[in-house]
TrEMBL record:
Domain Aminoacyl-tRNA synthetase class I anticodon-binding residue range list: 318-459
Gene: gltX
Family as reported in the entry's similarity comment: Belongs to the class-I aminoacyl-tRNA synthetase family. Glutamate--tRNA ligase type 1 subfamily.
Free-text function comment from the UniProt entry: Catalyzes the attachment of glutamate to tRNA(Glu) in a two-step reaction: glutamate is first activated by ATP to form Glu-AMP and then transferred to the acceptor end of tRNA(Glu).
Protein's name according to its UniProt entry: Glutamate--tRNA ligase
Length: 465
């Protein structure tokens, strides 16, 4: 039996807004790493910024993770709710000599920084023994010599000179803990073995390591992943289009496609571009993460999305359609509409790139009789064409309603009228869908079923006189 402790990762967003696509990828990497090793994936809401943290943002983050299909172990942890524990650790450090009371006022600190613009703040109270009975902060008594070394699984060995780091505040004079202390205490108490996060946190890590050392706690493994840039190579922002996970959901990318695409955004497994969740969990490791920023590429995302739409089980795809309609505030499918779309899925999924694209192709299955024919399609419905539709209606009245038999009947009617099949297909599209651009007319007929298809043809043939 192995003595190796189980893998524990965490995702720790701040609930100050929507779940950014970069945060979603960080959550995915942590989820894949833990799930692929039989480990635990934890969720912590870093809500210590009370002015900016909102319940609505927390709900949006949870909803986003659920949509993406990332499950977590246990209940989400509120960082703010653990403030007493954070303060307790600060006092422990004070007691063991790795922290000290600082009585410097904000004005004194600002004045010192102005006089020493390129130096880390050194508190005059660091080694003081005669202490007043006044409000004070608790500061880390950080080493002044040597280096703090980060053995990062992505960035490699990172060295930071200790004389470039100040004695950071652990507990403010009002008794509230700082973010830097809270993160370390929470990660330690939650048993986190691997901290996988954006490389914008790398500068914090040297300071956080000093807290681990001061408390005699084992360090987790650190892996700082590069940020996501836009296609132009610049830091991702709203000018590049969608940046919130909810926006990608509203654009109609299925969750499985987003997991596949985000996994490949900065990580690779050979040349594999398209894979399912089982493969991702089995393959994902930290060694496959590159150091260069990843670039969001919407064309590649559409390619991945199209692949997943083709490979999804019918029931999963229908659920994705229902979720998309709900996400975008559209009316749910009626039973009849759902039955028609499900019947049409073999044809619809072949060309669909996103869920809206699939629904656009499925418009024929969504409309009800009498079908409203647009101007372009109406031009194919003259008296002669309606006569051919009437002949086709009679020819297929008692057909077995298979695609092959319907197509053969249409070819026969076209030949009898001395025209090619295309001349019959145009009015047939108009009658069935009210449009000139649709899936195959025979796919539509089989999806609509005998009664509905014949009824739509009857609506138009009645106008033939």
């Amino acid at each position: 039996m192995s003595d190796t402790p189980p893998i524990v990762t965490r995702f720790a967003p701040s609930p100050t807004g929507y779940l950014h696509i970069g945060g979603a990828r960080t959550a995915l990497f942590n989820w894949l790493f833990a799930r692929g090793r039989g480990g635990r994936f934890l969720l912590r809401i870093e809500d210590t910024d009370r002015a900016r943290s909102t319940p609505e943002a927390t709900a949006a983050i949870l909803k986003g993770l659920e949509w993406l299909g990332l499950d977590w172990d246990g209940e989400p942890v509120s960082q703010f709710a653990r403030k007493d524990r954070h303060a307790e650790v600060a006092r422990q450090m004070l007691a063991n000599g790795t922290a000290y009371k600082c009585f410097s006022t904000p004005e004194e600190i600002a004045s010192w920084r102005e006089a020493h613009p390129r130096q880390p703040f050194v508190s005059p109270w660091r080694d003081a023994t005669d202490l007043p009975d006044l409000p004070h902060a608790i500061r880390l008594k950080a080493p002044r010599n040597g280096q703090t070394i980060i053995a990062d699984r992505v960035q490699g060995e990172v060295r930071v000179a200790n004389d470039q780091l100040d004695d950071m505040v652990l507990l403010r004079s009002d008794g509230t803990p700082t973010y830097m202390l809270a993160v370390v205490v929470d990660d330690h108490d939650m048993g986190v073995t691997h901290v996988i996060r954006g490389d914008d946190h790398l500068t914090n890590t040297a300071r956080q390591i000093q807290i681990y050392e001061a408390m005699g706690w084992p360090r987790p493994v650190f892996a700082h992943i590069p940020l996501i840039h836009g296609e132009d190579g610049r830091k991702l922002s709203k000018r590049h289009g969608a940046v919130g996970l909810h926006e990608f959901a509203a654009l109609g990318y299925p969750a499985g496609a987003m997991r596949n695409y985000l996994a490949r955004l900065g990580w690779s497994h050979g040349d594999d571009e398209l894979f399912d969740d089982d493969q991702a969990r089995a393959w994902f490791d930290l060694d496959g993460i590159g150091r260069a920023p990843a670039r969001l590429d919407f064309r590649k995302l559409e390619h991945v999305s199209a692949h997943h739409l083709k490979s999804m089980e019918d029931s999963a795809l229908m659920q994705a359609v229902a979720d998309f309609l709900g996400e975008t505030g559209q009316a749910p499918l009626t039973d009849a509409q759902a039955a028609r779309i499900r019947a049409a899925l073999p044809a619809l999924r072949e060309k669909a790139r996103t869920l809206p694209h699939l629904l656009e192709q499925a418009r024929f299955a969504l409309v009800e009789r009498p079908v409203d024919v647009d101007d372009k399609a109406a031009r194919a419905l003259d008296t002669v064409s309606r006569g051919m539709l009437k002949s086709l209606t009679a020819a297929v009245q008692h057909a077995s309603w298979t695609r092959d038999e319907l197509e053969q009947a249409a070819k026969t009617v076209a030949e009898e009228n001395g025209v090619g099949l295309g001349k019959l297909a145009a009015p047939l599209r108009a009658a069935l869908a009210g449009r000139s651009a649709t899936p195959s007319v025979f796919d539509m007929m089989t999806a609509l079923g005998r009664d509905e298809a014949l009824a739509r043809l009857h609506d138009q043939t009645e106008l033939a006189g």
